[in-house]
Amino acid sequence: MTEPTETGPAGPVRVLVVDDDPIVRSALSLMLGGQADLEVVGEAGDGLEGVALVDRLRPDVVLMDIRMPVLDGLEATRRLHRLPEPPHVIVLTTFDADEHVVQALAAGADGFLLKDTPPARIVEALRKVADGEPMLSPSVTRTLIDRLRAAEAEPADDRAARAQRRLAVLTEREHEVALAVGRGLSNAEIARELHLSIPTVKAHVSRLFDKLVVTNRVQIAICVHDAGLG
């Protein structure tokens, strides 16, 4: 995997495309191959092959389909997330696969795109995710939080108390960053609002992952909203 700098990977962002539809793979590879700062390093037709190629090719970002034979995108994402140096993962889905998207994010994916997403948006997503930015708008974050809450059996009062205890270990600045993440702000937006550098914001977010024992920004947002602060 390429060594990151303050603004993302050094050199072109290395992308692996994992999809069981060869037409989709070819279209994505052709489209991404025209970008000077992106490099498609490989293609896989199922999740198992994708996991094996990640180990060999060390991509920065994996575009991961959900519904595939042999090993689906959900389990492949979980396996990748357990690697010592996991790549970023953007799951690809269709409009009716919301439940799968929620599960993928919980497994450690950094975002998702619909398969009919305009090419420019896909390119933007890859660049942002490679730079540590999730592809989750505030409205999407809110929807995912509501869906995850609806699936939980824990009473709201107990959930709120537990979330408040988790947030209590944060420093004042980390707490401010957590609230901003809970509102769906990007690193750049948090930096502007709190008058910090983007590398400093990234460092705070990384500490939030450790202190709150979470794997992505959606889970930080869930904790903030459960605590009644979002």
Automatic annotation (TrEMBL):
<keyword id="KW-0238">DNA-binding</keyword>
<feature type="modified residue" description="4-aspartylphosphate">
    <location>
        <position position="65"/>
    </location>
</feature>
<dbReference type="Pfam" id="PF00072">
    <property type="entry name" value="Response_reg"/>
</dbReference>
<dbReference type="InterPro" id="IPR039420">
    <property type="entry name" value="WalR-like"/>
</dbReference>
<feature type="domain" description="Response regulatory">
    <location>
        <begin position="14"/>
        <end position="130"/>
    </location>
</feature>
<feature type="domain" description="HTH luxR-type">
    <location>
        <begin position="163"/>
        <end position="228"/>
    </location>
</feature>
<dbReference type="InterPro" id="IPR000792">
    <property type="entry name" value="Tscrpt_reg_LuxR_C"/>
</dbReference>
<dbReference type="Pfam" id="PF00196">
    <property type="entry name" value="GerE"/>
</dbReference>
<dbReference type="InterPro" id="IPR016032">
    <property type="entry name" value="Sig_transdc_resp-reg_C-effctor"/>
</dbReference>
<keyword id="KW-0804">Transcription</keyword>
<dbReference type="InterPro" id="IPR011006">
    <property type="entry name" value="CheY-like_superfamily"/>
</dbReference>
<keyword id="KW-0805">Transcription regulation</keyword>
<protein>
    <submittedName>
        <fullName>Response regulator transcription factor</fullName>
    </submittedName>
</protein>
<dbReference type="InterPro" id="IPR001789">
    <property type="entry name" value="Sig_transdc_resp-reg_receiver"/>
</dbReference>
<keyword id="KW-0597">Phosphoprotein</keyword>
<dbReference type="InterPro" id="IPR058245">
    <property type="entry name" value="NreC/VraR/RcsB-like_REC"/>
</dbReference>
